Amino acid sequence: MSELLDYHFALNSLLETHQPLEGEEEVALARLGGRVLARDILVQHDVPAFDNSAMDGYAISGNECDSWQVVQRIAAGDQAELALLPGQAARIFTGAPIPAGTTAVLIQENVTLDAERKVITHTVSAGEAPNVKDGQNIRRQAEELRRGEPLLARGQRITPAAIGLLSIQGYAHAPCVPQPRVTVFSSGNELVPPGQPLPPGKIYDSNRQMLSAMLQAEGFIVIDGGILPDSLEPTRQALEKAAAESDAILCSGGVSVGEEDHLKNALQQVGELTQWRLAIKPGKPITWGRIGACRVFMLPGNPVSSLVTFRQLALPALQRMAGVSVEQARPWKLMARAGFSRSKVDSRREFLRVVLENSADGFRVKPMAMQGSNMLSGAVFATALAEIPPGTKIEEGIELAVYPLADRF
Ligand code: AMP
Ligand code: MG
Fold it and tell me: In the prediction, which pLDDT does 409 show?
């Protein structure tokens, strides 16, 4: 029997041993949300593309002049055709190109016009700097982004702001890592799909729906594998078939040591089992391995164990396959104070379902009432998982590592 592995060791090895899927797809802007870049993207146009005005006001030539003759008007979208000579000015608007010869832009609030609106002088309100600074209120060409420099890095997940940035650069599509196809199975003779009558002794299957929803929210292509019976041969066949059609298999149940638990055996017969059994609570029997190129994650059947092991172990590995960088795939961790105490200690690392509360001295965590690994009702409204290291007695106010459940905010 293999030893109980430490969570952090397991997480690091999962992050290292799962690589982005090979190949790349050009994805149009409208479909890029949540996708992951397969290659670095470079700046293809300087930003700003030309020197332009940061304000509505007047472009002037000669900062030391007493007044300036207004000789032209330039709006955003216009071209600045005439150069300014010292003592001349151009009425100008935010984003409009500044004409050659411009030494500064005066904001319109600091300018007085003569009766014919032809000559301007500089007026400064109390508290403002009286001198015209060379180049003030001018956005210089390429001051933000210069052609040829990096724009977005490989492994970056595309956010709405990143879609905006690609658009600024004129990109209509971007090269992305293929989305992993994940087949999701439940396993157990007791399971009945929701919507059907429930015979005595049976329960409704909840893991398949929950895991599929989490995968979909993270941008994976989900294939419904159905419910596997507690029997070796059909399980073996179903795993082999799914391995041929998908990049990963995610199943739950049937991975303990009971004689009705066939998933590990099936995996060993058709592929290879890399690791099973972690020193964590809940989720000790979690198992992973591969069937050919298809990566396999076998989560424990109790719904909360499934939820916790998915978020803390399987999802980071799957995100690596989706192309997400190691840093971004690692579950987000912040520090918070315990808002409770508990004298009981456990030899396994625990992930308690907690609520994050805002307080004057930072975040505090309070545990949900129902902490059983079978009690999904105690996990539904949790906003984070709090990590309790092995053998730790919790005293109110001690610092704990906390993993926010991002979809709960
Ligand atoms: P197992 O790991 O198969 O022994 O399952 C552990 C517990 O989780 C048992 O009480 C199962 O009935 C329950 N369970 C397993 N799979 C599911 C599922 N898909 N939905 C709800 N409960 C499940
Ligand atoms: Mg079972």
Answer: 65
